Amino acid sequence: xxxxxxSSLAVSVAVNGExxxxxxxxxxxxxxxxRDDLGxxxxxxxxxxxxxxxxxxxxNGEPVKSCMLLTVQVDGAALxxxxxxxxxxELTPLQRAFNEHHALQCGYCTxxxxxxxxxxxxxxxxxxxxxxxxxxxxxxCRCTGYVNIVEAVVAAGRGSx
Amino acid sequence: xxxxxxxxxxxxxxxxxxALLAEHDGARPLAGGQTLVNVxxxxxxxxxxxxxxxxxxxxxxxxxxxxxRLEIGAMVTYAQLVSSSEVExxxxxxxxxxxxxxxxxxxxxxxxGGNVCVNDPxxxxxxxxxxxxxxxxxxxxxxxxxxxxxxxxxxxxxxxVGVGELLTKVSVPPAVSGTGxxxxxxxxxxxxxxxxxxxxSISDEGGVGSTEPLESRGAGSADARAGAVRVVLGCxxxxxxxxxxxxxxxxxxxxxxxxxxxxxxxLGATLDPPSDxxxxxxxxxxxxxxLAVRAVLQAASRRTA
Lengths: 161, 305
Fold this sequence. Notes:
Chain A is an alpha+beta fold. Chain A has two domains: 8-81, Beta-grasp domain (Ubiquitin-like (UB roll), Roll); 93-158, DNA polymerase, domain 1 (Orthogonal Bundle), CATH 1.10.150. Chain A has helices spanning 30-37, 93-100, 110-123, 129-135, 147-158, and strands at residues 8-15, 18-25, 56-59, 62-65, 78-80. The chains are: A alpha+beta, B alpha+beta.
C-alpha cells in the first residue's frame, strides 16, 4: 500500500479464503466492493449510515460494518462474508438454529445477525441471553422483535439447535 | 453510497503521516473511520486526502510512562480499552465506559484518538478524560507537545490538534489510594448516543484530608470524605463543562447522598444546553444535576482503599 496519496490503489485481500487482487478507487466503500465488484450480494446495505448492521462482515475474525470502511483500508486483511459461513451449502448449527427458532421474517437483517452471532460464538461458545443481546446490539431487525433471534443464538450455543 | 473522490495514503511511520498531513491542504487523518466515513457520506466533511493511521503500531499500544501515568495510543480501539489489563488495573472506568459506546462492530474499529479529536459534544470520552485529568500528546513537524484537557477541547469538532499535527497518545494518572471514578448518562436507547452525561473523579489530593496521613483519619473516613472532586458534564455545551461550584462544595466533604444532592443544586441553572428532539434545554439542565449526583456517588462507592 502506497505511502503517497492516490485516488485508486491496488488492494490485496482474502475474501472467504480466496485471495483477491484488484485496483480499487479510494472512495469505494467495502460493502460496494463486496456486492458490486465481487458479486457477494449476501452482505446487505440497510441504512447506509452505520446504524443497522446489515452489512456486518468479519475483518480478521472481528465483526465490523462494511459500510463504514473504505475498501483500501482492508488491504492485506482477511474477510469473511455471509457466503463464507457455509461455503459448501450445508447450514451451520447457528443457521439451523435461526431456521428452527423462526429467527427471521423478511430476512433482510439476517446476514448481519448471523455474522455478529457467529463472531460471538467463536470467542464465547456458550453465551448467555444477556451476552447475546450485547453482541447483537449493532444489528437492527424491524420484523421479529429480536426474541426469536436471541433464542436461536442461545440455542446454537447450547448445541440444542 | 458514493463518496466524493478522495486520495488515500497509508504511511508507515508517524513522521511520514505528519509530513503528509502538512504537505496536503485538505488532508485529514483517518483512524477507525467510525465517524469520518459517515460524515464523508453525508458530505459534511470532504477531505481531499485521507492519511490512514492503520500501520502506525506505536499508536496502538497501552502502557505506563516513566512518570507512572497510563499511556494510551491514539489508535487504541474501544475494544482494546475494554479488554486491557493495564486499563483494568490503572483506571477501570475507561474500559467500563468504552464498553457502552455504540455496539460491538463500532467498538472493534473506533479509537480513543478519533473519539476525542472529533469532540462531538455527545461523545463519552471527552468529559470522562477531563474528569480524569488526562494529558494529550500532539506531534508535529516541530516536535511534540503535551496539553491538558482544558486546553485540548476547544469547540465542536475542534481541538488543540492543528493543521499538520497528529494526536499520538492520551495519558491519565493511575488510580491511587482514595481514587474513585464514576460515569452516568441518559442515552437514546441502551448504549445509544448520550442526551446528557456526567463524569466524576475523586482523589485524596488537594482536599482537606490530603495533609493528614490516612491512618490518622480513623477507620472508614477514607471512604466518606473526599479530597478533590472533579465533576464534568457532556452534551450541554460545545466542550465538556466542569461543574466548579459543585466541585468546591464537595471538596473535603463527606460524600453522603444528601450532601452530594445538596452540592448539585443550582448546577442546571449555570448551564445553557441545546434543545433538540431528544430533550429540551430545561430537561438537560435537570438531567445534568441528576447525573452529576449519580456519577459522584458511583465514584464515592468505588474509592480504592
